[in-house]
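--- STAGE predict ---
source: upstream dedup step, 1 unique chain passed
mode: sequence only
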Amino acid sequence: DFPIVSTSAMFERIQALALHETPLPAHPQQARGLVLVDRDGTLMQDAIFDPGQVELLPGVVESLKRLQQAGYLLCIVSNQQGIGLGYFGYRDFIDGNRKLLRLLGKERIAIRKIYFCPHSLGESCDCRKPAPGLMLKALRDLNASPENTFVIGDSAADMEAARAAGCRGPYVGPAQTGYPA
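--- STAGE serialize ---
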């Protein structure tokens, strides 16, 4: 599935890259904490397989801006069973994320990383929520403590994964027993 690239095109690309100075390192951000946000059903409509249909849900921009202004790093943690079931491909998922990041970027909202599980419910893994694997990886990668990490999600699985990782956070989905809306 990789495009065929001519040797001359590769040399042109290498030459173009060589003309650019290495960027200065980013200033380390003194984060107040970390916020792990579910994607589908929390940031955007659930079960969108067409990247062109990606739209932010009401209140997302305002909420993420407030968290970012308060000094929290923002990451996405998402189950993507549709990849494992063949409903859409990895490239479709990436294209959907690009659209999502463009929409958030227009509002000056920075997502630090996107963590996802491509496995179906029928596959055994440690990353599919309610397992805490995605959240534990984010905590390790960003050197964050569970005490300063919040999880925002729309499902019981999001909240169970948060608890299993030692985090807490608001449930934003429909009212369920034990999860007030």
